Amino acid sequence: MRITRFPPIENEAHEYHLRSNNSPWLLKTPALKSVNYQPHIIELSNEGPRKIETAIEDGVVQLSRDLAPLTITLEDAIMQRTSSRMFSRSPILFEKFSKLLALSNGLRESVNTKIKGGRNSPSAGGLGSCEIYILVFNVEDIKPGLYHYDVIEHALKPLKLGNFKRWTEKMVLIQTELTESGCLIFLASNQNRLLQKYGSRGYRLGLLDAGHVSQNIYLIASALNLAVTATGGFIDDTLNTALRLDGLKDCVVLVLAVGENQ
Ligand SMILES: Cc1cc2nc3c(=O)[nH]c(=O)nc-3n(C[C@H](O)[C@H](O)[C@H](O)COP(=O)(O)O)c2cc1C
């Protein structure tokens, strides 16, 4: 039976939402149940996290793997979590920064754990669609610049080194005060991967994947006494171009500013 209860479409968001709906006819498509075993989907799953080539070999930053366990309970981390822009002028400590990335979207192997395989954030189809890029302003022992977080090596791969505070204020962020943070974390959705498996529904799933990583970042920041706030207020095209993303198959969907607490 076709469902016709929808109110009229009033804007692009409604249009998008309907286009990413699963239709009832999918239930009559037995091949879908075995989609995970199709060769091109197995290939996608095995592709693994992104690795970028960098011409700045001496700018690669190996993050710490020697990470002391968190000392607060999950319950306390949730209760203390808040969005804060009260950034201190002190650099984010290297150990904290390493821990934040490892726990939010790293491989489970990158931290002390007996569970092997997979990432520290759930993702649709286990495709790990959310890639992390970082703009460092003030992090201990790390040169300011734009980096990609290589989750396999647990390392930052530089795209471009330099102080991009002014550029960020003028060209990227609507809330310019966020450049007072220690770094900006850009959550980029690898739509290409999701669309190959899920079609239009992949867009929804990509946003949800990024949402999980964002919540991990919030909770770990809370546990490490770091200030953090998410923002959707950024200029997509400028940012995607700087990160060498095409803005469609790969696109930034959320920005988080993180710093030591005042
Ligand atoms: C997806 C998302 C987008 C957000 N965008 C902005 C933003 O553009 N500007 C801003 O100041 N805060 C932004 N925030 C932070 C929210 O305003 C904040 O989470 C909310 O006020 C609740 O406060 P709390 O996080 O301290 O509970 C965003 C949060 C999320 C989860």
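Residues 82-83, 175, 229-233, 254 surround flavin mononucleotide (CB under 6 Å).
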